[in-house]
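step=encode ok
step=design start
structure_in=
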């Protein structure tokens, strides 16, 4: 039998088209390794405990779709949330369901909406080649998840644990620290909240990985994830700058419109001031004309009074003449 070879792929994760947030989710930095791991191991069944928006699930599904793997995928989640992920409504489950129907209709993929304990009897002992544990991250919860599903893992099967980086402060990190001391393992603790890869029932696939010469390349996944996250952050920053520039341009246009309006108002005020000045000049001319008419009337009144005095003198003289003997 030809020994498996480790290949570095650079897939396009189609689910990001429906949910762009997957590209920056807490699990996103491990998608490249998960894809390559499925290509390497070609498992019969992958069971995931805790899916939420499906970042890890759709990485597995992309590998199955692209590479034509003989792999059944099972995602188990209540899609109600928990104390770490927060509580959410049915829109999350609806988006995951729509993504499966849109991007992976030919992939053998089950979405089981139930608790991990309720789903456990449906899986025979040794029937799960890859078990991914990513539920509630308390020590009690992750211990119960592992203990409850451990016998479902196939001989030489693999268990993925998310959120095992010490700096998360989660109980899952404490559990991983104690568990890895007793089993062969790989771990990625420096990015994306940490991913532990445990070989609890035989190290066949770890030895195959080493024999394929892949071990020195594992650090590449961290660097590639960090580089892509940095590129995404730069793109987001560029988008923010573009939005701010657009806002500034709109503000400049508003200021220009305001200045134009103010200039128009200033011209209108100047025109009204000119009209007022002309009106004041007309009023002054009218007042001057009225003053002239008043003086003319006074002069005429004086003439009339003088004429009345002359008439009175004349009448007095006539009366005196008539009275003379």
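sequence_out=
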């Amino acid at each position: 039998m030809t020994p498996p070879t480790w290949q570095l792929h650079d897939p396009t994760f189609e689910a990001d088209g429906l949910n762009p947030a997957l590209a920056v989710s807490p699990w996103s930095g491990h998608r490249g390794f998960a894809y390559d791991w499925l290509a390497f191991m070609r498992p019969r069944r992958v069971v995931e405990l805790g899916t939420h928006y499906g970042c890890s699930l759709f990485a597995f599904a992309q590998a199955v779709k692209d590479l034509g793997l003989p792999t059944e995928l099972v995602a188990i989640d209540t899609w109600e949330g928990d104390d770490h992920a927060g509580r959410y409504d049915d829109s999350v489950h609806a988006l995951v369901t729509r993504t499966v129907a849109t991007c992976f209709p030919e992939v053998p993929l089950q979405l089981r909406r139930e608790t991990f304990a309720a789903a456990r009897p449906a899986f025979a002992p040794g029937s799960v080649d890859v078990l991914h544990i990513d539920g509630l991250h308390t020590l009690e919860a992750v211990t119960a998840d592992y203990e409850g599903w451990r016998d479902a893992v196939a001989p030489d099967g693999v268990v993925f644990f998310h959120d095992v980086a010490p700096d998360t402060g989660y109980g899952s990190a404490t559990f991983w620290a104690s568990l890895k001391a007793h089993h062969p393992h790989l771990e990625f603790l420096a990015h994306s909240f940490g991913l532990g890869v445990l070989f609890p029932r035989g190290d066949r696939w770890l030895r195959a990985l080493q024999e394929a010469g892949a071990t020195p390349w594992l650090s590449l996944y961290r660097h590639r994830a960090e580089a892509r996250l940095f590129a995404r952050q730069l793109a987001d920053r560029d988008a923010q700058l573009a939005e701010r520039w657009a806002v500034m341009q709109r503000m400049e246009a508003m200021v220009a419109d305001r200045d134009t309006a103010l200039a128009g108002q200033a011209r209108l005020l100047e025109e009204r001031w000119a009209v007022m000045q002309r009106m004041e000049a007309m009023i002054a001319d009218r007042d001057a004309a009225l003053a002239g008419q008043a003086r003319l009337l006074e002069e005429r009144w004086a003439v009339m009074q003088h004429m009345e005095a002359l008439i009175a003198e004349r009448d007095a003289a006539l009366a005196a003449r008539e009275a003379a003997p």
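step=design ok
step=annotate ok -> The radius of gyration is 47 Å.
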